[in-house]
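ok so i was messing around last nite and threw this chain in just to see what happens. nothing serious, just curious
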Amino acid sequence: MNTLDEERRRLTEMFDIAPSRVLYAVSVLGVADRVPPGGSTVERIAAAVGTDAQRLGRLVRAAETLGIFRVDAAGTVRLTPAGTLLRSDQPGSLRAEFSDNALFTAWGPFAETVRGGAPSYDLANGTSIFAGMSGDPGALVTFHAHMRMRAQQLYRSLLPFLLRRCAEDVVDLAGGTGGLSELLLEGDAAVRVTLTDLPEVIALVPPDMLRRHGDRFSAEPGDMRAGIPRGYGTYLLGSVLHDWADDEAAEILRCCADGMVPGSELILLERVLAESGPDPRRMGDMWMMAMTGGRERTRQEWAELAGSAGLTLRHVHHGAGEISAVVLGRSG
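result:
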């Protein structure tokens, strides 16, 4: 096979939408939930989830090629370790995320977004991703449960740096239901964390988190765009600014700068893209363009954004994963 043929095959494989839709169907139907530890048959699973057995069998065999199931010669279906992540009761489950059809259909008008239109999600669904959640309490609960789990995964490799850099009094701005706050509180018995987010989000903070950490932890409703708690040593913004285009992100940073005092630092936990050359994190940039109209940024772009809000980029710490800590201070 010549080089051009190899490239044609590679591009064709990348263009194939079928694998993601197979995972979607397995998740929506709850197939993994119906596979016990000892395995089951396609017929039993089909009866449990209410599908045609022959078609479900084809879906299961397709998912087997993706490493979700193992099917032996007798037809017994078992979950692989990857397959367990599609169970509803599995810690860190991906089932809810993979069942969200709006995330798939949102890519349909993506070319229009690139031309200069609204986010692809908005064009496909008639509303923004955040407005859609605000009108659907169930979606809000699912989203923030997922983000809490994801925060603890994404930021864990940065925890040693954060514990060294943070002051004893920390504000976790727009911190959801406290995934990042929990990491800090469990990592250092001396740190005190104030979590802020919108009232409907703060209402979802696990009650046991408040009980376990006592006066070291508080959760306060508030919109950071209307102002932040003043006078703290460290402010954290975890994966927030990438949701926003530059103008909106700069406005958020200006609100943060207004609440900071000399010596305060604002630490952004965000992707920092390579200045040049291929970078897998560029796919995350496409997700933000499509879903929210936001963007991922390079170090230089973070520095310029900070400068437009009266802040200075002091340091960037790269963790073991895809997220870095971008440390900002007040200019002057």
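not much to say yet. The CA atoms of residues 68 and 82 lie 6 Å apart.
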